[in-house]
Specification:
about 325 residues; Rossmann fold; 5-stranded parallel sheet; 5 strands
């Protein structure tokens, strides 16, 4: 019963985020879904969770699909379903190689699928090499009967046009704070913690869950919040520079956190001219800092340039 309630709650939130979902669920439940569907969205927007819900709808043996509790749904959740193949990045991989694509094609041709529909999940297909994508093109274009392809991606442009053109596209937008908060509460987080995390997540429930227990993130965020304030002056500069001096190893996290803070400030202070102006300077400072970083400029010079760029003349 708990699993059924969880799936119902997930479906309710996703239907709010993406109005196209109820019709898709019905199509997968009735085995009339598009032969290839690509779910596009930024990190943490719910691509994997949504793909699992659609796969459960396809495989579910209950009348109300997906139920989340029957044997078929549980097997999909555990990725142990005989009629489901999953290909994606493995540990420490930067891309999915053509050999993995060919292994999948061999499995599709020879694997003894049990009766019923079968589903192929290609996770982060934008991380597949062009050779791997090309190897899968014909299978996606001309799938075997009752075979459905589900693809996820972050960067649509990294997916070959020939692949994209053969898929129905579902774009997941950024979530509202309220939607993120609901999801975190469903995960068992306290109300106030859910509110706080949702306000920092920038529309990504996955990001909220990632930073929840990330001690490094919170330490850097405290540093950024304490030092980079709209009231920063030239007199404050030496001390501010000193506090960032020994943080070279955290350079990437610091720049990400500053960008995060700039975006958050802008989104929550749209009517405050001074704060908005500071947020814009902060964001522009991060852009320039990343350019300097790519040119192998020293960390101290990078952070000093960023700090000075945020001080209003």
């Amino acid at each position: 019963m708990a699993d059924t309630n969880k799936v119902s709650e997930q479906l309710a939130v996703f239907s709010d985020v993406s109005p196209a979902l109820p019709a898709l669920i019905t199509q997968y439940a009735n085995h009339t879904a598009p032969h290839a569907l690509m779910i596009s969205g930024q990190f943490g927007f719910g691509k994997t969770t949504l793909a699992s819900l659609l796969a459960q709808a396809l495989m579910c043996e209950d009348e109300n699909k997906p139920c989340g509790a029957c044997r078929q749904c549980v097997r999909v959740q555990n990725r142990s379903h005989a009629n489901m193949l999953v290909v994606g990045l493995q540990d420490k991989q930067r891309s999915v190689k053509v050999e993995q694509a060919r292994d999948l094609l061999s499995d599709l041709a020879a694997y003894p699928f049990s009766a019923g529909p079968r589903l192929v999940l290609l996770e982060l297909v934008d991380m597949f090499t062009p050779q791997a994508q090309n190897a899968l093109l014909k299978a996606i274009e001309e799938p075997e009967p009752s075979t459905y392809f589900l693809l996820t991606c972050v960067n649509e442009r990294a997916v070959l046009t020939t692949i994209r053109s053969r898929c129905q596209l579902l774009r997941l937008p950024a979530w509202t704070d309220e939607q993120v908060e609901r999801t975190l509460i469903q995960q068992g987080l306290p109300l106030q913690e859910s509110k706080n995390l949702a306000s920092l997540a920038l529309g990504s429930p996955g990001k909220a869950l990632q930073i929840q227990d990330d001690k490094a993130f919170w330490a850097i965020k405290r540093l950024v919040d304490e030092v980079l304030t709209p009231g920063l002056t030239l007199q404050d500069f030496p001390e501010a520079s000193k506090r960032f001096k020994d943080q070279k190893d955290n350079a990437g996290l610091i720049l990400d956190t500053i960008e995060f803070s700039a975006t958050h400030l802008a989104s929550t202070n749209a009517r405050n001219h001074d704060t908005m102006s500071f947020a814009c300077r902060l964001y522009e400072g991060v852009v320039e800092a990343r350019r300097l970083q790519a040119s192998n400029v020293s960390w101290q010079a990078i952070i000093d340039a960023l700090l000075l760029s945020t001080i209003e003349e």
